Amino acid sequence: MTDIFDDFDWDAFEKKDSFQMSEKQNEGTVDDIEHTVVSGTVISITQREVVVNIGYRTDGIIQKSEFIYNPELKVGDVVDVYIESKSNHLGQPILSHKKARAAKAWERVNEALDNNETVKAYVKCRTKGGTIVDVFGMEAFMPGSQTDIVRVDNLETFVGQTIGVKVVKINKEYRNVVVSRKSVVEENLAKKTTDKTLLKEIWQKHTEVQEQILRQRTAPVAIIPEETTIINEKLHVRVDTTDNTKEIQQQIVDSLEIDYDDCHFEEGYVLSPISNWQKLNESVKARISSKANKEYVTFTYYPVVDGSVVDKHAQFTGVTHLLDKLEVEYDFDKNNRLQISIDELNRLKENKEFNSLQLALPDRASAIIPTYPSIIVYLEKQYPGLKLNNIESFKNFKDSKKKIRTGVNIDKQVSVEGGYFTQEFLDLIKPVFELQMCKVEYTFIIHENALNRYDWQANTLGLPNLNGNTITFYKNIKRPALQENTDDITRENEADETSDIADMTSSEFFNTKDTTDFNFDFYLWNKLMKRLFGQDNYDHIEKYYYKYRENRDWATVEELDKFNDDLHTLFKPSIEHSVSSNGTSIGIDFNWKEKSLPELLTELSRDYPFVDFGLFKNGHKCNFDILYRKADMTEIMNQLHDFSDDLHLELKKKGTELIFSREFQKIDDLLTFKAQLAHKLKTFDQSRYLCTISEVPSDKVKLIYFNDINSRDEDRFDAMRELREADFTVGKLKIGKLIRTANYPELILDISGDFYEVTKQLFEETDVTEIIPDLSGDLEKLARLKESLNRIVEGHDVENSSLGSFIFDASKAAGIKDYEDNIKLELQEVAKHLLNKRIANNEPQKVAIAKAILAPELSIIQGPPGSGKSTAIAELIWQHVRKNQNTRILLTSETNLAVDNAIDRVANPYHNLVKPIRIGDESRLETEGLQFSYSAMYRWAKGGDITTKEKSFDINEDDNDDNDATIVEDTVYKAPEKLILMNWMENISRRMDKDCMPEEAQELWQELLENPTDNLKVLFFDNYIANCNVVGATCSSIGQKNIILTENIATQSKKNKFVPTAFYKTYRSIFSQRDNDYNPKIRFDVVIQDEASKATPAELSMPLIYGKKNIIIGDHRQLPPMISREAFTNSFEYLIKREENNTELQRIKELKSFVIKNFNVLEISHFERLYNQIDEKLKGVFNYQFRMHPAINEVIKQFYKDEGGLECGLVHPKDLGVNDPDYIHNGASRFHGITAGPIDPSVHVLWIDSSSPEMLDGTSRVNYGEVKIIQKLLHELNNSDSFHEYTNKWNNIEDKQIGLISFYGKQLRLLKEMTKEFNSKEMPIRVSTVDRFQGMERNIIIVSMVRSHCIQTEKGQKPNYTKYGEDGYPKQKDLGFAQSPNRLNVALSRAKRLLIIVGDSQLFRTKEIYDNVYNTVSNHENGKILTAEEYGL
């Protein structure tokens, strides 16, 4: 507690009179019963009074307000009272609980400080820097910084609450006390942090809320049928933003029986006759108020006294008064930013009265600029291929008489290169743009060998200045008339040149700026150039400029749609201005003191010629966030708080206006209070403060009506934004996916699916009034997540009753009995019966498998990349089933790929003891998993087609920042290479006892197995299913019930209905007969979960509830689960808004505070948490990997030093031929044989040290230097015969493919664009993020690190060595994504044969682990370091 108030101004605080306690409160006369503190018993509590018995002949009465700090007061409680007098005129003792508390307060406060005790405090009011609280009857101060562990934006929310605080400082001289609620919260959270159930509670709450929020989003979205259009298979709809407020208003009017003259809904109130209000039924009030609240309307039916106090001396008030006085056009936005034109503001700066206000004008201003497709979009449609450019110049113009700027002149021109428009075309488009040629420009490029033919220094002809080897002639067009045809213009050397040239012997011709015949001018210029330099010694470029008038009505809906797409995609922010696009305008933040808005827009028009920027010519208003001197209304607020605790106070207009209001239940109370308040306001300094109470007719009451439109619109927009990428339906018809919400209330849906024609017909022929989001898949998963967590927390319907303990604290998992003896025996058993003989030489893998077999409840296995996790899983399954064929095992993971890879390893040519079934959508299964598909086997048994439709994806669609990636539904059919049933039949055939079986019987049996009859197929299928002992499925699919979403559920008017999940339908088909139950319980003896490091606690728990024993496999050195801080805080905000119980509310707030302050705890992979907690005897670690070349392994090894390191199993314990050139036939070979640029066959890790600057691009980052390096590298590979010889040996596209990984979306876009110049068939490249690459591997991987020790602000920025030293750019030290090594580990460990790192070592080597990586590459015989300069870049 010694340092938390170092920044607090104690001197100012301790001198405050308001905190001094009267010495008289501690004075008393012990000889008399009066003026003493005694104990009394509460015998009665009314709405206003508390009756206390002190053993006197009559009971005393105390105002209930004295107990406001203790809302839990009840009859029977013993309280301290101070006896002011033994009796009043009624013979009753005059008692005070407040003075009794005060008499003992000082002693109790000191005890609380000494004992670090948490005490109750009642928050009385807001004050400067914090709040005033009541502790033991005396006032104390709670600084705003000590209210919570996170910043509290509105301290008013605590006023009127009783909270727990600690006394943290006392000033004995002034008897001042400071308390802290923050200390109490920190103490409570510290206790909870040590309790492992805290995480359980947080995840449970978060999952519950996410389901509630998601369900709310399934409500139908009302749309306006008349504004629905379909363009390019995109459905444009406009959300109907109307609400039921008109209906609410009518109900209010009807209930109060008032005239519309008394309805002031726009002003925020209604007036009602007192008689009408008094007779209104309470149930009617409650019903209408509740309905209004749902429509974001606050209306309580309580009469109000309201008004305001304005500080007339405040800067803000002075500004508004002056602007009104000067009749300046201005406004304020919702954030009270001044909206005024820059010209007006510059003029105000010359006004003495304005300067006397001493405003601190900000450097930056913001403006909203309308946008529209420019003229070149129109012209390119008419003349494709023309070289066009739109040129907009914005200039301030002045009043010549007043010599002041009065507006903006906008000059709009379009240039055409290589020719000009015919008069016929100009006449045709005149109604649209009215183009008129204004200037011509002819540029002559003189060949180097002819430049010296003219004496440029003397320049006797007065030619334009030579720029390099070019000169440019230009003329302004004096008249609009244009030549219709230029065919008759002689542009050859067919006439005598001397006559024409004779007129050009002086410089007068070139100094003439205007022309009436530009064709003749060109003819003369061309003749001159031929004469001076020779006909073939120069080239020329013609450019024609046209003025045009602005038109913002020409574009079609389709063209506007494309323009909006381009605006979203192409508009980029710069260091001078930030741009945010909503489709029809841009927001610009700029330094108005350095650059005017016209100058800025002129620059933007050069950069973005496809955009026509608009500007109000007579003063475009900008927003200025002026820092006003804070108006001091603290004393006024304190006095009004002391005057009435129930008075609601709110500061407006930068703190210069205090709005007050108080609602009443009784008219008499209102009238009494109003008179008292009027008297109180008169006590304020009338010369400074303007005090007003709203006037209300004497026979009426004022009722507040507030329609919170902003909150409504924000909530609706947020809700629609959350629905982006969601499917939508009309009735039962699935119409498409929501792809654009930026122009809300306009939405765009992609309807280019199987039902396009039906959808198109539906919207064209009927009035569709609503579309419904289909979130059934997400909701089903969340419902199952919530159910699994609840079952764990409550301890019911789980196969292992201890799961709730060890799933959040792995140290509580049951251990292995007689570990030393049993592990030795188990290792021997495992070694005897290995399914995969490679494991025999992999001791860490054998030990991990043995531990997992012996573990009674939980085992954790850490498996680095390429360490054979799939092989180990297959071995675990085999070893469990070998011991007991009836063991029921669930194999699960977050991805289908992981499940399919592991389950495929179980198939073998020796036996059929393990009988797996794969449950899942066949279109998502890999071929390895399809052979175990229940559906495929069922179709085979019934004589059907075992092929299945597959969804194909564009491999280059990853990581599109705008979520515009396309998924192409191809009619591709794939079949499993061989059903597991056929493998079973082949094994039976191989095991046939040919010595004992007659040859005829062998032939018959062989024929039946090779060509089974329908009956035999059914027999095999039924027997296989009856003996199934392994089920493979993804985590999210496992569960018994799915929720059905209907319109009624969306409106919460009916109960949820449930149907079996696809998983459960198959599970039931497999196990119902065996379990003698049509709806068997989902249960497994063993659950094996792979890739667990990416699972949240909720996702991890979902499959585990079904297992008696759980084996969890993952790698916490790879990517953790993707969780959002915003999603968590929003969840708790959602609960806070809806919770009415104060105790529960406080608990939720504490959980929220913990999440905000300790989010890093939640970000830790739950797998890592379990791995660190569990007993070493239940934990296995794989230390051998079989994916990467030893040189790459040494790099990745740096990430696993804390887990015992990582060895390459391809060379340890013996070399399996890692450098064997026959890599096609030797699976252990990692030879590549490529020679290209810096790569030769001996290089397996290459680091090209880029050192080029990074650049911030929006919220993403790019590094243009790294793109150039990778581009050169790919060209060298593409030009290498050895590379193509290498790729041609592979049949599989994944083996041929180069993996190109980066960590930023904008860098990926640059890389994708760059790779388009390569033939994808000759050199296939997959460009993707590290997240998409996890779980994959490629022979060659290139990683673009992006981050650099220096940063540039714009593309093409030249280095400034004078300002920034040897780098030429500003320095930066942020590692960004690489702060956590996990992401880089995943990226680098994808490579099998060749790893190429392109990155800035100067930045990355500042972190020890990356310095180790760099040194490893540098020192390894198969590693190579190369600087960009050495590479020629």
Strand elements, count: 61
Shape: globular
Work out the helix count: 49
Which parts are unreliable, with pLDDT below 50 for 5 consecutive residues or more?
1-8, 12-31, 480-507, 949-973, 1045-1055
Helix content: 25-40%
Calculate Rg over CA atoms.
Answer: 40 Å
Structural class computed from helices and strand pairing: alpha+beta
Beginning-to-end CA distance, first to last residue: 57 Å
β-strand percent reads: 15-25%
Order of strands in the sheet with the most strands?
Answer: 11-39-36-37-38-13-12
3D structure, described in words:
The chain is of the alpha+beta class. The chain has 49 helices and 61 strands. Strand 27 (578-581) and strand 28 form a beta hairpin.
Condensed summary:
The protein is an alpha+beta fold and about 1450 residues long.
Mind sketching the topology for me?
Elements lengths: L9 H5 L22 E9 L3 E5 L6 E4 L14 E8 L8 E3 H18 L3 E10 L2 E6 L2 E6 L18 E10 L4 E5 H14 L2 H20 L4 E2 L6 E3 L2 E5 L6 H12 L6 E2 L4 E5 H5 L3 H13 L2 E2 L5 E8 L3 H11 L5 E2 L5 E4 H7 L3 H5 L7 E10 L1 H8 L4 E13 L4 E14 L5 H7 L6 E11 L23 E8 L19 H5 L6 H4 L2 E2 L2 H16 L4 E10 L9 H14 L7 E4 L3 E7 L5 H11 L3 E3 L7 E4 L9 H10 L4 E5 L4 E7 L3 H16 L6 E5 L6 E5 L1 E2 L1 H14 L4 E4 L2 E8 L5 E5 L5 H10 L4 E5 L1 H19 L8 H4 L12 H14 L10 H12 L3 E5 L6 H15 L5 E5 L2 H9 L11 E3 L8 H4 L3 H8 L6 E6 L13 E8 L5 H11 L8 H12 L3 H13 L3 E5 L6 E4 L2 H4 L6 E4 ...
Helix pairs in contact: 4-22, 4-36, 5-7, 22-35, 24-25, 25-26, 26-27, 29-32, 30-31, 36-37, 40-49, 41-44
